[in-house]
UniProtKB/TrEMBL annotation:
Organism: Paenibacillus lacisoli
Domain SsuA/THI5-like span(s) in chain numbering: 56-269
Annotated PANTHER family: 4-AMINO-5-HYDROXYMETHYL-2-METHYLPYRIMIDINE PHOSPHATE SYNTHASE THI11-RELATED (PTHR31528), THIAMINE BIOSYNTHESIS PROTEIN HI_0357-RELATED (PTHR31528:SF3)
InterPro entries to which the protein is assigned, alphabetical: NMT1/THI5, SsuA/THI5
Protein name per the record: ABC transporter substrate-binding protein
Upper lineage: Bacteria, Bacillati, Bacillota, Bacilli, Bacillales
Gene3D superfamilies in the record: Periplasmic binding protein-like II (3.40.190.10)
Top-level taxonomic group: Bacteria
Length: 342
């Protein structure tokens, strides 16, 4: 489960995306399938949702909703696709695909540049990412980053987060060596080039447990409430919300059912994901799902709900750390309106 590289989009590309989307370009023709909604003669509507990366347990609810017929019940034939040269953010913002998986940080960056992404659900209620190191590196606090080598993907947010939590302990981020490891596997990189990296515990951390390679994990949310942001999120675009709100509502009703199923039945949900994506390690999927399922909703009133203060707190943090040119209009970046009423 890799971190997003949406941060690396040039500003000109973001602006072009905004102009394209605002011009009212239509998504790929949805057509109709040969099937029909259960209990109805009405043809199913073909809809795509694009992942942020390769399939993993962040996405289980989507696969459950498809396998269990929750989408079909809502009149939808949903195809789950992986991004190619274009990222999920690109495809959704330009209205090529109506739904995708993204991150609060990249949605915030996009909104500042006029790109019309809108978050419609938090997949996980609290940030499960952080800095991880093999225990033999003795990195048990941000101060221990000094003198060590960090492997990242070249985003300005990485050093800003690192500096932010190191400053709290009087540590100097300039004493950390940064190298770009790109798409290199974490376990290979820490044996060869680096001491620590930024990971999602639900995948890489759980994999480390299964490998018998224990980690010291420093969750960024534990050092600042501003860093307890939503990652990942489900996104759509303003044009889809405006032109077909019923589609968004139907998609989110079924998707919510999928994630609630994964919360209640993690073992069965893991089996559904493994069957849909057989190249995944089944033991890793099962262990990851067990760890992640209770964290989907956590302490929220329902799965997917988002709070304005989480969006505004993180955006203010970004602005204060010179990652944004202006303050975010948080109320336009997300909505809970399409979650089912409970």
């Amino acid at each position: 489960m890799k971190r997003s590289k949406a941060w690396m989009l040039p500003l000109t590309a973001l602006i072009i995306l905004a102009l394209t989307a605002c011009g009212g370009s239509k998504p790929d023709s949805p057509g109709t399938s040969e099937g029909s909604a259960k209990g109805s003669d009405k043809p199913l509507k073909d809809v795509k949702v694009v992942l942020d990366w390769t399939p993993n347990t962040n996405h289980t609810g989507l696969y459950v909703a498809k396998e269990k017929g929750f989408y079909e019940k809502e009149g939808l034939n949903v195809e789950i696709v992986q991004p190619g040269q274009a990222s999920a953010d690109d495809l959704v913002a330009s209205n090529k695909i109506p739904f995708g998986i993204s991150y609060q940080e990249s949605v915030t960056q996009a909104r500042i540049q006029g790109v019309p992404l809108v978050s419609i659900a938090a997949v996980i209620q609290h940030n499960t990412s952080g800095f991880a190191a093999p225990v033999d590196r003795s990195i048990q606090s941000p101060k221990d980053f000094e003198g060590k080598t960090y492997g990242g993907w070249g985003s300005p947010v990485e050093e800003a987060v690192m500096k932010s939590i190191m400053d709290l302990q009087g540590a100097d981020v300039k004493k950390v060596k940064n190298i770009n490891i790109g798409d290199a596997d974490y376990f290979t990189a820490v044996k060869r080039d680096i001491d620590f990296a930024w990971i999602y515990y639900a995948w890489t951390g759980v994999e480390a447990e299964l490998r018998g390679e224990p980690l010291d994990m420093l969750y960024v949310k534990d050092y600042s409430k501003d860093l307890d942001y939503y990652t990942p999120v489900i996104v759509t675009n303003e044009e889809t919300i405006k032109s077909d709100p019923e589609l968004v509502k139907s998609f989110m009703k079924a998707t919510s059912e999928g994630y609630k199923f994964a919360i209640d039945k993690p073992e069965e949900a893991a089996g559904i994901l493994s069957a849909a994506v057989p190249e995944l390690d089944k033991k890793l999927v099962a262990a990851s799902q067990k760890w992640l399922s209770p964290r989907y909703q956590d302490d929220a009133s329902q799965w997917g709900v988002q709070k304005a203060e989480v969006w505004s707190n993180y955006a203010t943090w970004m602005y204060d750390h010179k990652l944004l040119d202006k303050q975010l209009e948080a109320d336009k970046a997300f909505t809970n309106d399409f979650l089912p009423k409970e």
